[in-house]
UniProtKB/TrEMBL annotation:
Pfam families: DNA_pol_A_exo1, Mut7-C. Transmembrane segments: none annotated. It comes from Pisum sativum. Residues 301-320 are annotated as: Disordered. InterPro entries: 3'-5'_exonuclease_dom, Exonuclease_MUT-7-like, Mut-7_DEDDy_dom, Mut7-C_RNAse_dom, RNaseH-like_sf, RNaseH_sf. GO terms for molecular function: 3'-5' exonuclease activity; nucleic acid binding. This is 3'-5' exonuclease domain-containing protein. Keywords: Exonuclease, Hydrolase, Nuclease. Residues 13-207 form the 3'-5' exonuclease domain.
Amino acid sequence: MDPQNQKPLEIHLVTATDSPEFTHLTRSLSQTSLVGLDAEWKPVRTQQKSFPTVSVLQIACQLGDDSVVFLLDLLSIPLSSIWEPLQEMLVSPDILKLGFRFKQDLVYLSSTFCSQGCNPGFDKVEPYLDITSVYNHLQYKKHGRSVSKQNKSLSTICGEMLGISLSKELQCSDWSQRPLTEEQMTYAAMDAHCLLGIFKIFQAKVAEEGELDLKTNKLSISSANLGLKELFKKHDMSDKVLSTQFCEALAIVQATTSSGVVQVPPSAGEVIKKSSCRDTKPMDAFLLKIVKKHGDRILLKESDREPKTSKKKRKKQLPINGISREKHIENFDEWQGTAPWDPLLGGDGCPKFLCDVMVEGLAKHLRCVGIDAAVPNSKKPEPRELITQAQKEKRVLLTRDAKLLRHDYQIYKVKGLLKTEQLLEIIETFQLNISEDQLMSRCTKCNGQFIQKPLSTEEAIEAAKGFQKIPSCLFNKNLEFWQCMDCSQLYWEGTQYHNAVQKFVDICKLSD
Ligand SMILES: [Zn+2]
């Protein structure tokens, strides 16, 4: 396909309600059935008393075969004037909202609006579909149940599904600075826009499989990329890619944003009035079926709206008289900070731990349920080394050594004595999601991940030469072997494997 025929991404920066861009936005919201949402805020240091202020809200609207991205500059628009249209969009049954772990964005967005007197902010998004579920669903369809559910980053998912790389370089840039740079605008727009692209592929797959009855559907995979792929054609999947292709893309985008593509409808006032008694377009039958089958929602609880205070601050607030500090440390749910793997802190959202020698057994158990659990780099590490490693790799340090808690880093003291107890304690404390297909998805020996494709018996024998003996009784069983990418250890789905899976299904009570 000739890239020149591709329509460039249409981006509109909305800075005021009496602007043509705002009119365009409200009109688009009344016509769309599908939006991709994302928000940007100025990164704050961990463990602050309040939530960060959202400074840009991105809304990518699908309009027929076209799409358009609106960047709402929440630092210039009076929030009270856009609360109502946003609220309507978030709960409109006529609009499916796509997001990538949007709950956190919603918490911050809500708090931002509340702080400007728009109580009660926002507490619901429905119907909603998270791109992680879309991705996991497609993976499940593709590989069956042996592939582990992973919390991949949006950038990884985009790379796999759309063949484009999103740069993460700008994620932590200063979103409160004005004017926003062209790079920031493009980045922000892409993050919302790619959600539409991923959803289109999902939609097309669903249609292809005839999972839902869809005689009327006219989707084509070719429209699934929405021009993104061509925009970043020569990608090589690395995270830095965008910077090279960025210039080309940027040139196209700049041409669009500055050429005034906007058609101005009658008058802004008229449309605002209309937005309060909007007649939105109902979803088509196909989308409605997808929503019925896969649709979800985000509901914020009271507790979600309160920033969690840090361990350090909490300790200071606690009465010291008569109660020893050690006692507080013994509180089961005392771990309260933002986890270092939190995307807010630049992490990838996947829980990661570093287990010191006192909880080595726990490390193995965590790996068995698919959780990334490393051990110290050196044999007898100093506390400082442990902390540096944890920090560097964005891990929470797990230990039974109360002395380590004095150090200013995210350390959790494990209370349980038995490995199984400890495992359940960590799952509960850090609210880890364990699913059955995640069991045995990681090398228990070294914490490495497996090579994606299983090996046949012949390939396994070849791969095991010189360091691991494969019992000959396995030879004629047509088993699949999995090899660790790091230490090359081979695993297979034998009796031991099934026993182990059953054991962790029981421990984690996954069967009910
Ligand atoms: Zn390994």
